[in-house]
User: Fold this.
Amino acid sequence: MTSLPLLRAACHGLPPLTARLEPWQASLLADAERLGRLVDAFGSPLNLHQADPFERNAGALLDVAEARGVELEILFARKANKALAYVERALVMGIGVDTASEAELTQALALGMPSDRLVSTAAVKSVELVRICVAASVPVVVDGADELDRVQAVASEMGKVARVIFRLSGFRVDGAELESRFGIHPADAPALAATIPVPASGKGGLRLEGLHFHLDGYAASHRIAGLGRSLLLADELRGKGHPIGSIDMGGGFPMRYLDDPWEWQAFRSALDEALLGRRPPITHGNAGMGRLAVDGQVAGELGLYPYYQEPVGPEWLAGILDAPSKPARGMSGGTLAQALRSRGLRLRCEPGRSLLDGCGITVARVEHRKRHRDGSWSIGLAMNRSQCATAKPDHAVDPILLRIQEPASRGAAPTPTSRAMPMPTSMAPMEGYLVGARCTESDLLSLRRLRFPHGVARGDLVVFPNTAGYLMHFVETRSHQFPLARNVVLSLGDPGTVTPDPIDDLV
Assistant:
């Protein structure tokens, strides 16, 4: 076993960004031999999952709502991770699933998830997807008149009542309107709702039963504005006979990847200093990740996830529910929690990343090292950039390097004795970049320059911490016909038990 401080010391960024780790992750990483056997058995890269933090994270949100008398319905944003382990855990917990595709929906239904705990929020909804929703009585979040027409046509064809929810956008914050490609403007929603007969026809009608919004970013003020405007619209639509029972505030619940706020500040300062030429670059090609030096100043928005932020999760939700609500006709003001409670409205939400905080790691094998003439190194891993990435420029936390004795022949199956050999001795320090297997200049697994104080050897393992939320699957590809990473679930009750997630047999 190797201690966690020693593990972290084997690789760090310039400057470091030390990732938070769950106890189960620290325990697994301290047993490099076991992790090496898992990679030998399942391939590189390998996604490792543990669903207990998922339950803890959801429970913390439910506790916040319960303390304020708010009925909160959590629907896990399945797009954040495709592993079925989290759908299975949600089913046991009594929470729901937000599905954004036909496959996500049919898989949840096949596992026995009740329709009342499902929703379809797909950005583009095919006729086939709508038919599944209508047949199973799963609510459809509609984005405009065309989608509403499609749902109406399918409902008429099937002779069933379709459950629909209006997605809203265009809320005003600080005098400006929040722009989005999604949603119906609140001012336009009553006219669209007027096309829905009340009550719904039992032979192919629509039932408008909720409101929804999903806002970009993590600003609590935006959610407060969205909830306030949605409450007023709910009052108006209820007055016209529509049975609005819930308001869904979507996802975007913030989380932290780092424990140390000073590391995040130091990184941001060092990035700007490097862009201004005042220190050596800390990224490949001095990439600014959205920042740009112009006339001696650095401008532009950093394109990374805010790896340290506060408040997060439960505290963030508490601040929203405790925010003041504007008085409505016949109702007092009070807090947003009181406004929801007095109307008998359920609050729904669709967190993804924040529910998966602490649930997964991705590990890959070092296949080669190459020293360049400037002294930097390329460390080639058996994976590609899509297998630990989102739409953001980088996963900017320090990987963890595990030193592994490489078997004499990589082509031969590893044996317990080959894995039990003494750890490699320290080598000369190295600095450089992790690179992937795709034949493009851009396939860097991280843009950050990394330092390896004791070197790197072929056969070593590189671990990317806390990757379950969006990083494992959101943009993964089979470019070059590489296989997708396998997904393996670890049990805390029996630490020796690992189970392949069944999703790998479906996709």
Q: What stands out?
A: Residues 220-239 form the longest helix (20 residues). The chain has a mean pLDDT of 93. The radius of gyration is 25 Å. The chain has three domains: 4-50+358-505, 52-254+316-349, 261-299.
